[in-house]
Specification:
Lipocalin; three-stranded antiparallel beta sheet; eight-stranded antiparallel β-barrel; about 210 residues; disordered N terminus; 2 domains; globular; mainly beta
Length: about 210
């Protein structure tokens, strides 16, 4: 999350983003395999059900399906593009490292925000295409030591065939809320200049 200051206007904007949890359900698929020298029978074969649209909701034999291409640690950069709120194209909105986990969750450490104000935020993702992923990210924004409210970051990214980079788009919307019971995540009041839109780039961190 990052505070963006432009022409006297300050906005607390947190970065990263999924529209749902892309989960996996363990299951046993019946597989007809008569044992040699025995009467016909059936046995269970360990399998995993992948509900992603790109996979057609298919059962895949356990061990035959690798982790989605998005899983791993990425260096990310958020660049403004196509805004009508005074933020110019090419402005750096945020940067940091993002860990996309195989269980459908994601964690980002923002390099554009002071750790003392909280620089860690989390999201959930799902696969929406062969190499396309959708992320919904929630961050809690502070300004001058006071709680501003939740920021929602939505991303849609495509992993390159090499598997070592991705590109996509993002939208950040900062809301005004109060730190009181039942109101902490209120999304009825948008803080300008959000929504902020742009492009996101990711480079995979590869172990030595």
């Amino acid at each position: 999350m990052k505070q963006v200051k432009l022409a006297g206007t300050t906005a607390a904007a947190a970065v990263i983003g999924i529209l749902g949890l892309w989960g996996e359900a363990q299951a046993g698929c019946p597989s007809y395999t008569p044992p040699a020298g025995a009467r016909d029978g059936a046995r269970l074969t360990p399998a995993v059900y992948h509900p992603g649209a790109a996979l057609g909701g298919a059962f895949v034999l356990a061990g035959d399906f690798g982790a989605p291409a998005i899983v791993g640690l990425w260096k990310v950069e958020f660049i403004a593009r196509g805004n009508t709120n005074g933020i110019p194209d090419g402005a750096l909105i945020d940067f940091g490292t993002a860990q996309w986990h195989e269980d459908g969750t994601e964690t980002m450490i923002s390099g554009g925000r002071n750790p003392a104000d909280g620089d860690v935020c989390m999201g959930v993702w799902r696969q929406v295409g062969r190499s396309t992923y959708s992320l919904t990210h929630v961050a809690l924004a502070y300004h001058a030591g006071s709680y501003v409210g939740p920021a929602q970051i939505s991303e849609r990214v495509n992993v390159d065939p090499s598997g070592d980079s991705f590109t996509g788009t993002f939208t950040i919307t900062q809301y005004s809320a109060s730190a009181s019971p039942g109101m902490e995540f209120d999304q009825s009041v948008v803080v300008p200049p959000t929504p902020i839109r742009g492009v996101i780039k990711g480079t995979r961190v590869i172990p030595n």
